[in-house]
Amino acid sequence: MKEQLLTLRGAKIYIKTMGTGKPLVFLHGGPGGEHRFFLPHVEELANSFQLVFYDQRGCGSSEKIEDESKYTIHEEIETLEELRQQMGIEKLSLIGESWGSMLALAYATTYPDHVEKIVLTAAVGATGEALKEFGKELKLRLTAADKVAFDTAINNLQTGKGTVKEIFAVLDPYYVYSPDALLKKTNTASNEVVNRVLGADISASYDVRESLQKLAHIPVLILQGEHDLITPSKLDELLLQYIPNKTLVVLERCGHWTVVERPQRFNEEVMRFIQQ
Fold first, then answer.
1. CA atoms of 157 and 170, how far apart (whole Å)
2. DSSP type of residue 265
3. Is the dihedral of CA 198, 199, 200, 201 positive or negative?
């Protein structure tokens, strides 16, 4: 395993690599999450590939940026492109989770000649409206008591009396099919500023529907939990209909945290897809 800080787009970005072979670049969710969400669940893949994890701008162990206007989709795309260049990877094989699935598609439609294959998991959609749909579905599933707890946690955060961790304490059970999965998730941090600022940019400007036709030559595998907040059938409306070269695999007994709940099946599907 190797850890380093690379200066990308003027910011120090934390990168961790493990294994050897074809590089697989992992894009974490959030926005505002960190790479540790994937660990240790996908480490088995390091027996066959080089796994490349990084914390997006302002996230995890990467440098925090004072200028909030730098937390944009464009900056994330260009940061990933500079990572590709500095690591000397001709074509990326991307694995994007949740918001990371949106970043994978945004990058691929910007630099289609720099992408070999794409894996999307816990996918959200092709537009910023899909992110709003995700939030609506989450609120619909909340119990009455959890709605009160959620509103209280949001208010505490906005008034400086609470933390993002309190919000996730309410929401996390809704991201999984089995409560047992909550014990398997690695403890990760979330940058509230990145979540808020980049989330607003996604909602306002993210739309790759028409440009997804550029990916006709790029195989795309979608691994979606059967009980995800964006169900496989809903995902067809929000994303799948726009992707020309796709394969959907539905993970049974699984919610939004596919990597955490079904790691063995996830790794098997990724291995098969990348090697074919």
1. 13
2. H
3. positive
> Mind listing the pLDDT tens digit for each residue in 116-134?
999 999 999 999 999 999 9
| Residue 144 CA from chain centroid, whole number | 29
Tokens representing 29 are 């969710």
Can you spell out the DSSP letters for 63-110? PP-S-GGG-SHHHHHHHHHHHHHHHT-SSEEEEEETHHHHHHHHHHHH
- Residue 186 CA to residue 201 CA, distance in Å, equals 28
76 close to 103: Cβ distance less than 8 angstroms: yes
**Whether this model's pTM surpasses 0.70:** yes
Contact 108, 94 (CB under 8 A): yes
- Taking each helix axis from N to C end, the angle separating 144-158 and 164-171, rounded to the nearest 10 degrees, works out to 170
Three-state SS at 229: coil
Q: What length does the chain have?
A: 276
Q: Which amino acid is it at 186?
A: T
Q: Are strands 23-27 and 50-54 parallel, antiparallel or unpaired?
A: parallel
Q: Structure tokens of 202? A: 């996604």
Is 2-275 assigned to CATH 3.90.1210.10? no
Half-sphere exposure of 59 (CA within 13 A, CB side): 29
